[in-house]
Each structure stands twice: as structure tokens, then as C-alpha cells.
Amino acid sequence: MARARSPQYPAIGLREALEKVQLVYDKDYTNELPRAVVAEHMGYQSLNGKSLGILSALAKFGLLDGRGDQTKVSELALTILAHQPGDPERHEALKIAAERPTLFSEIQAKFPDGKVSDQALRSYLLTRRFIPSAADIVIRAYRDTKALVQAETAFYDGDDPDQEVEDSMEHQHQFAAGSHNPPPPLGKLPRITLGDDQLEISGGVIANLEQLEKVFKMLRAGKMMLEVQAEDLPKQQDTKDPEKEFE
Hints:
Number of domains: 2
Structural class: mainly alpha
Order of helices and strands: HEHHEEHHHHHHEEH
Strand order of the largest sheet: 1-3-2
Distance between the termini: 8 Å
Number of helices: 10
Low-confidence stretches: 158-177, 182-186, 235-240, 242-247
Radius of gyration: 22 Å
Strand content: 5-15%
Mean pLDDT: 80
Number of strands: 5
Helix content: 55-70%
């Protein structure tokens, strides 16, 4: 039986891709390296079907740059790694990385906002000549990527918590000077950070219903992200090597 190859796609989602590129950055920053060394930094013993698939995925997300055998952590990856969730620069860089894979851009255009069932998405991929096992990998990678972007979007809504406090203090001064509008209560939202398998919540004061709703939104996004991670664990054990697919 002839070997069937699916169209190109990232074998992992953006969340896992960022974990992999973080390992490379921790060892060698943005130094230009042979691909075998990059694979070793990510925990692989050699360049094989699995490690080459991961390297390809990182390149498709724009997290690695290079030509030929030489590659390095990209500026896009550095922007994401250097900033905390909620930072505008990280937020924009994540959106760019999520849309870099050509296939993901096509899915996004076909199904705006990712509003599509797994069954419908699988049917679409099969019509694009993906074999079933590859279609399942694509769906997991796409869902993982969308979940990460949506979760971090909840952390970033364009408002700077420090600026909120400054604006509120300014209103306090205006009220004291004779304004008829009562000043809003002071408050600074707590920082909620996504870890590998947990949410870290620190500091902050919730002073009004609007801020409480923002915190609820961030927690819901964090819950969704943890659910995606939990669902991926057993599936990853059964994932086939994307370089060894047969009809």
C-alpha cells in the first residue's frame, strides 16, 4: 500500500510549542544553533521523526528562525517569553504566532472565531486530503492554540490596572475640588498567572462589580486552559508519530 502524506501542519499546539522553545532559550538564549542541538535542548536524543516534527511545528508558529541546519529562537518567541500574561506586547505576539501556520489561518477563515464542532472540523480536514490520524492531531493542536489565545485574551482587555488606580485617584481629586459626580472606588486587580498545571493568584483589591466581573472572566479562561491541559495528557500518549502515517 502506498504511503499517504497529509498536507503540512503543526503537530503540536502553541502552548506546547512555547514550552519547547522556552527550553531552548533557557539553555542557549537566541544563539544560532544546529538543529540537532536545538532538539537536544528540547529533550530529544537525535534528529528523528518526532523531533523533526516538533522543530517543524515551532518554525510554523514563527518561534524558530533559520536557514538550512542553523536555527535560533526568534524575536517573536522572545517577545512572548519575555512578557507576563496580560502584557500588550505578549498578547499581540501570541495572536501573530497563532495565525502563522497556513492551515490554522485557513481554518480561521473557514470557521470565524473557531466556532465549529470537532466533527465538522474533521470532515473539512478529510476533504483537504488529511488522513484520519493526522486530522485528529490537527484538531488537538488547533484547539490547544485557540484555548491559549482565548485564555490570555481574558488577561488582557486593553486596560492597565495601574492606570485604573491613577484615574480613580484623579477622580477623587476632582470630587474634592467640587465635582458633583462621586469618585469610583480605588482598586487594583489581582494578577492571575497560568502555570504548567495550576493558576497562581497574587495581590490586588477588587473594589467594584466591574472589576469583579473581570476577575471572573480571567478565572473562567484559566479553568478552560487547565481543562485543555488535562484532556491532552491521555491523548498525547496515543498520538502517532506525524512522520509515520499510513492510510
